[in-house]
């Protein structure tokens, strides 16, 4: 009888534990959705910062997650000072490997878009070290994308043209728009603006509903935009 009662209590405890875990996960999704809506839909960076400063947030989200959310807020502001301040990972925050990779990717992207070659090289090296022994195809693709970003935006390496053209030939719509835009940049660097404009027109068709569309359209009117963006 006693054994039966213990089993019942154990089953109740397991059920409560599972319920708690699922409840926390549901709450996390709700909180993350609200933060995303506040920053990207309402564009209310002040309220977003206040939400992140709430101590109650740490009852739901990991410190590493909150740190990444702070970085998102800094990136949204576009302020280089705010971004690099947010990129200084505090020693007391432990990041999971996927969080660290996400962090490095965002930092690299901001560095190359702002033409900061020193920081771009640093974050590319961090990604290379983190993924050095990875054999997973999706992670290898992330490493290749990081190298491509650095090669196009920082090194302005026109020798990449053939490789990007080969990739574009078998690429889907969303990725194709970015590849065509990068090819336009590289052709601009060779001095062939006629080819660059032709590629920009094609890129714009594949960048509808994308934040890159505005940049591509401005570059169509003034190819010097390709120098910096």
Commentary on this structure:
The chain is an all-alpha fold and 229 residues long. It folds into three domains: 27-93; 96-155, no CATH class; 159-229. It contains twelve helices and no strands. The chain has helices spanning 2-41, 45-52, 63-77, 80-86, 97-113, 117-130, 137-154, 161-169, 173-190, 193-206, 212-221, 225-228. α3 (63-77) packs antiparallel against α4, α5 (97-113) runs antiparallel to α6 and α5 packs parallel to α7. It is globular and about 55 Å long.
Topology of this structure?
Blueprint: H1 2-41, H2 45-52, H3 63-77, H4 80-86, H5 97-113, H6 117-130, H7 137-154, H8 161-169, H9 173-190, H10 193-206, H11 212-221, H12 225-228
Helix pairs in contact: 2-3, 3-4, 3-5, 5-6, 5-7, 6-7, 8-9, 9-10, 10-11
